[in-house]
Amino acid sequence: MARGYRPRLEREPVSALMLGVPLISVMLGSVMTLLPFIATAPILPPLGLIMLLAWRFLVRDLWPAWIGLPLGLFDDLLSGQPLGSAAFIWTILLLIIEVFDRRMMWRDFTQDWIIGGTLIATALFLGLGFASLDGGGANPLLLVPQIVISGLCLPLALRICAVLDRLRWRL
Amino acid sequence: MAPPSPRRSGFSRRAQYGIFATYVIAVIGAIFALLLALTERLDPKGHAALQLVVSDLTAPLSQLGRSVTSGLGGVGETIGAYFNAASKNKAMEAELRASRVKLVQGQADAMEVKRLKQLLAVRDVATQPIIAARLVSSSSSSSRRYATLAAGRNAGVVEGQVVRSVDGLIGSVIQAGQISARVRMIIDGKSIIPVKRASDNTPAQIIGLGDGRLEVRGLAAGQSPFKPGDVFITSGAGGVYRPGIPVAVVTQRTQSRTFARPAADPTSFDYALVEAPFVAPPPLPQAEQDAEAADKAVSSQ
Question: In this complex, how many residue pairs, one in chain A and one in chain B, have their CB atoms less than 8 Å apart?
């Protein structure tokens, strides 16, 4: 038997990767705010949230219901929003998706896209609310470009998650 | 058949309780997170501490990226410079000739000012920048306009200091970590800066709108006297921002509002200078007494 041979059948996937790949991909999405450019308006989509929703739509029993808490807290640490805001919003969004799972058992891609887009828009408006708690209120219309870009990012994120999903089973 | 929901666990009591527990944790956790976010205004320092630790850890990474991207931005400009090179050259030569004349006038004026200042015995308070550092990243997905400065307490940066570039005012430091600091830019929705029009000292306020624009509000009642092209500089009123830093240029005027863009283009910040907050000289005691006396006279009437 050649060195480095691994059987292709009856192989157990690596459990660290099975959980680690989705977690790290969401956290990488949150880290994108560190990109070295100075934005004059909120233009970067909330990539952490988009990755989280994409994973949730793709593999729905991947995570326990509370996964939004730690991932949201991590996002808060980087995003400049008040600490706890994303933790709250993300958890609530995941619970809302649970409700959709009960009501609409068969969902196609378009429906997932609409649900996801609406949830992201909700998250951005709530985030604006949290950010203006201490007086930095901005015009809600300001969020429209960000919402549109986020909506367009969602199918792309689903694709990336699908590739990562295959990867984590094969490695 | 509908796909079996992973959240419905059949008849196993243990599995049912396990799934129920995850919902309980999620809801309780969400409530705690909400409280945490709502109490931010009561204890901003405690909340900022954690974010600053992370910012300290990640600022060097962004700084590394910043040096690469500023190089890339330069490539585009270099290529763009070749287009219309001849006509640009002509225009620039004309401008150069005109500005040479103005330069001579300016030198003469500077001499005159110096002489007058000596005459009046006015002392210039020289403000030395505390440090020059890079602005490395910003809160691009948030609706607040914060930037991260790659210098912190170790370099003498503390809260309340003023951040400016060579072109104009950038903002002020709101939180300082060990090696990084968070800067609230003037385009943030919470920023208000007392300014005056550079040409005739008309007082005004400049307020951030959060979308990259600024709004100019005159202090005097009546229709706004400002028109596109007006330059505003800090007036120094109330301290913090020392007088004479360029802040904004008016771009657009509507029926009721006047909009401006920052004098220092936020997207091209490279190095920022951190300065100590300006302390306005205290009013003369004699003037104060006079004012009080006048107040009393008014109230007794």
Answer: 189
